[in-house]
Design brief:
The protein is α/β, with parallel strands linked by helices. The protein contains 12 helices and 10 strands.
């Protein structure tokens, strides 16, 4: 796993591991996150053992509310991809509580549950959040950096961009408007390019779960499908040769971690993720025939609830 250490301020007292799930698993096997914090190390993540935690930016927001001197961190340890959650969390550890709480909540919802989860009204009010997402998107391009120096430079450039969002109101408004326009356009494009190959309904406890299996390369395919009323989406990307499974509402009585365990047993090892989203083994390319087999396995798992 590519990993980098980025200096924030040489005189600050703490070190943070931000969105570094492969490193965090090893750290937390040694001592707890609370004990690491007593030693001056922040572990901000919501994967693996920490999958029930809020996003890194929400965790950082809670930390900085109780402090008055910034920057808090001397250096941060990061892994690819450089994303909004990572950069916004470090922004707060460097600059303090500079983001409105409502915008932190929007960033948290989008990172954990998807862009469909905040309401349109919440999105339109979240100027800082939208501008930060746009700023990071303009810096970070796929394929993600695969060496430490490139990873570190990409992160530093993204951090400078989100600091400008905080400091420059005109720039912030421009980026927020651009993000909202591009988001709405991409949802329309997803509607035109997403193919639903199978769908069904299953009763789970007192809820009727509507699910679908789809093929799409659209950036906001999940958002489009959730807004169409599907609760559980199985999405296949032919370009990535990868399957992703997502749950639109985290309050629904389904834990996708249980599905991934089932797929590990009935398909192949390597499936994983969080309660509401995850996907196929990272180093295994899936063709369309295998995708149909996977859909059949998932259909069988879902029917087990009935």
């Amino acid at each position: 796993m590519t990993r980098a250490i980025a200096t924030v301020d040489e005189n600050a007292p703490h070190i943070a591991f931000v969105e570094t799930p492969s490193a965090n698993e090893k750290l937390l096997d040694v001592i707890s996150r609370e004990e690491w914090r007593e030693l001056g190390v922040f572990v901000l993540d919501h994967h693996g053992q920490l999958s029930e935690e809020p996003s890194a930016v929400a965790q950082a927001h809670e930390i900085v509310k109780d402090h008055t001197e910034f920057p808090m961190v001397r250096a941060v340890v990061i892994e690819p991809p450089v994303d909004t959650d990572m950069v916004a969390a470090v922004l707060l550890l460097k600059r303090g509580p500079v983001l409105p709480e409502e915008d932190v909540e929007v960033l948290d919802k989008i990172d954990r549950f998807g862009k469909h989860y905040p309401s349109d009204e919440e999105l339109e009010r979240a100027e800082y959040a939208l501008a930060i997402m746009q700023a990071v998107a303009e810096v970070v391009k796929k394929p993600y950096p695969d060496n430490p120096e490139e990873l570190k430079e990409t992160f530093k450039k993204a951090l400078r961009a989100v600091e400008r969002v905080v400091d420059d109101e005109e720039y912030r408004k421009e980026l927020a408007s651009k993000w909202l326009e591009e988001f709405r356009k991409s949802v329309r494009e997803a509607e035109e390019s997403t193919e639903v190959i199978e769908e069904g309904k299953v009763k789970v406890e007192d809820d009727r779960i509507r699910w679908c299996a789809t093929i799409s390369e659209a950036q906001n395919a999940f958002t489009y499908l959730y807004r169409e009323g599907y609760d559980l989406v199985i999405l296949y990307s032919p370009a990535m040769k990868r399957v992703t499974v997502g749950l639109g509402d985290p309050e629904l009585p389904i834990d996708l971690c249980e599905l991934f365990e089932y797929l590990n047993e009935h398909h192949r090892e390597g499936w994983g993720g969080r309660k509401n989203i995850g996907g196929s083994p990272k180093n295994h390319g899936i063709d369309e025939d295998e995708f149909k087999d996977i859909v059949s396995i998932i259909r069988g798992w879902l029917l087990g609830f009935s």
